[in-house]
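Incident review: delayed structure delivery

Summary: a single-chain prediction request sat in the queue longer than the usual turnaround. Root cause was a stuck worker, restarted by the on-call engineer. No data loss occurred. The affected request and its eventual output are reproduced below so the record is complete for anyone auditing the incident later.

Affected input:
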Amino acid sequence: MMAKEKTWFQKLGYKQNPFIIKPYAFNEDLQGYRVQIRKVNTSIKRGRVIFIEGDYGVGKTAVLKEIIKAFKGKKKLIYYSANRSEGSIPFDALIKGRAGPLGKMFGVRPKELILMIDEAQKLTLHDCEKIEYLIKKGHFRSVILVSDSYAKANLTDSLRRKIGNKVLSLGEVISDYTAVKIVRTRLGKKNRKFMQPKIIKEVFERANRNPRTLLEHLEDIARYVVEEKGAEKVTPEDVAYVLA
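Output delivered after worker restart:
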């Protein structure tokens, strides 16, 4: 029986693809977001309304999980994806759901809760008005809205005023330095010469600074260089050829 031909990453000495796309890109590396996550958590503690925006693949899921991890133990955080609702969001049911078994039995409606709405582009004006009402009544201490674009979100003017400048744009957070650091960590010391920092920066720009797209591009380039060229190092010409 003929031996199975090695994959490009096996030829480089890896057991699995170093550029593999995990459930969310850059799962293991949030260096570029640490300061921003701390700022968001501080704003939540102070009872603010915050908007987090970013395209698919920039790490929204990773950031949200970090925020949820910081607050869910207190049983004060409600996470809800607006994609689940065809009509208005069932805020009253969500609030009562945080009351616990006895609270539900006696109709308790907790206060000082933290509301996180994912896919916030699905919010209706009625939803926004209800959020404002529940903030006023003290049921929501802080609100985090998450979507791909703040500008395109269907928010009331008064809710936008509450948000003010508290908009975190994830696509603008990751620097060239962070992108290089993460990629070189994935490659490890033995293959650092395979892809120089200037190559990583160039691909990052061509990926519109999107971490997920960066990893996809790097995988395509690495496969071409190893399998088709049989080379040991990525060149600018390889980048231009693969991403043409």
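Verification: The longest strand covers residues 140-147.
Action items: add queue-age alerting; document worker restart procedure.
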